[in-house]
Amino acid sequence: MTPRQRFIEALERRPLKGRVPHFELVFFLTMEAFGKVHPSHRSYHQWDQMTEKEKGLHRADMAELYIATAEKYEHSAIFLHPNPYRLDETIRMLELIREKSGDKYFTMIHGDTTFGIPDGAGMYDFACRLADEPEKVKEEAGRAVDEALKKAEVLAGRGLLDGFALCSDYCFNSGPFLSPAAFSEFITPFLARLIKGYRDMGFYTIKHTDGNIMPILEQLVQANPHALHSLDPQGGVDIAEVKRLVGDRVCLIGNVNCGLLQTGTDEEVIQSASYALKNGMPGGGYIFSTSNCIYTGMSLERYELMLDVWRREGNCL
Fold first, then answer.
1. Rounded Cα gap, residues 263 and 299, in angstroms
2. Where are the alpha helices (DSSP H) in the chain?
3. Sign of the dihedral through C-alpha 41, 47, 50, 54
4. Which residues lie below 8 Å from residue 269, measured CB to CB, with a gap of 6+?
5. Domains of the chain, each with CATH number or no CATH
6. DSSP string spanning 16-75?
7. At what angle do helices 266-280 and 300-313 cross, to 10 degrees?
8. pLDDT in tens, 19-45
């Protein structure tokens, strides 16, 4: 099977033989690995002033970098971060990736519209709005879902995109930013409708949130994503417990402590990677990754150490 096919098998929780799939939401260390700036870190303020030839060179370079990352680090999926962030450019980039790599890799883009944790400047106002004008907040959430599904319809059936990563963060290390009751009112119905809309079009969905998801775990699973990411150990999320509770209903992705990749010892990194594999792999429905991404400031050697563990211990019988 191709990496894409194995990724889909894992999302559908089918048992796999051989090494479990691996990917990262983002691999930002492209300068160190390839001598090229990551697409998300490039400034395109003058994009509309470029000639079509210059735009084409940028698109080709970015597409090749995504593919090179997947090839070098054995990712089964490419999470595209379009830059510029426009639907027409997203389609062109997806076309290039398919043209250059065929159906080898699972392709996804960001697709979440649900409310995530507001920044410090907006938290107070958002909390007041939930209390003072809850119906208006829900109307906004519904409109955002509608708009996202309209965009998805443009992509559906083209054979370019396999799914969406839903990257609204809901949780601090201490727990969700809303109480479970408020979450069930302002987030879950809209998340479920968004996921159903994507599923009905044939797309796969991966719900990402950092932090302690345990108080809302059941709600997240009931929204019916194909997978949950990141299973954050820094938020006290134990993949063994999540596997026991919901592993028969949703694919699990992550749980390798990205904080330890930056500040821990080599032994701690090895232990975290081994623990995630040992407890995520049994019965299928697991994709190996960090608990966030390979972010700027992380040591590339630490990521490669994590991959060494995966190559040794990530093989299903």
1. 9
2. 3-11, 30-34, 52-72, 87-101, 123-132, 134-155, 180-186, 188-200, 217-222, 239-246, 258-263, 266-280, 300-313
3. positive
4. 256, 257, 260, 261, 302, 305, 306, 309
5. 3-16+112-316 (3.20.20.210)
6. --EEPPB--S-B-THHHHHSS--GGG---TTGGGS-HHHHHHHHHHHHHHHHHHHHHTT-
7. 40
8. 999 999 999 999 999 999 999 999 988
Q: Other C-beta atoms within 10 Å of 314: how many?
A: 22
Residue 85's Cβ-side half-sphere holds a number of Cα atoms within 13 Å equal to 8
Let me know: does 115 contact 143? Beta carbons within 8 Å: no
User: Token digits for 273?
Assistant: 């990677």
Prediction pTM value: 0.97
> Peptide bond preceding 84: is omega within 30 degrees of 0, i.e. cis?
yes
Identify whether the C-beta of residue 219 lies closer than 8 Å to the C-beta of residue 195.
no
Q: Over the stretch 60-87, which tens digit does the pLDDT of each residue have?
A: 999 999 999 999 999 999 999 999 999 9
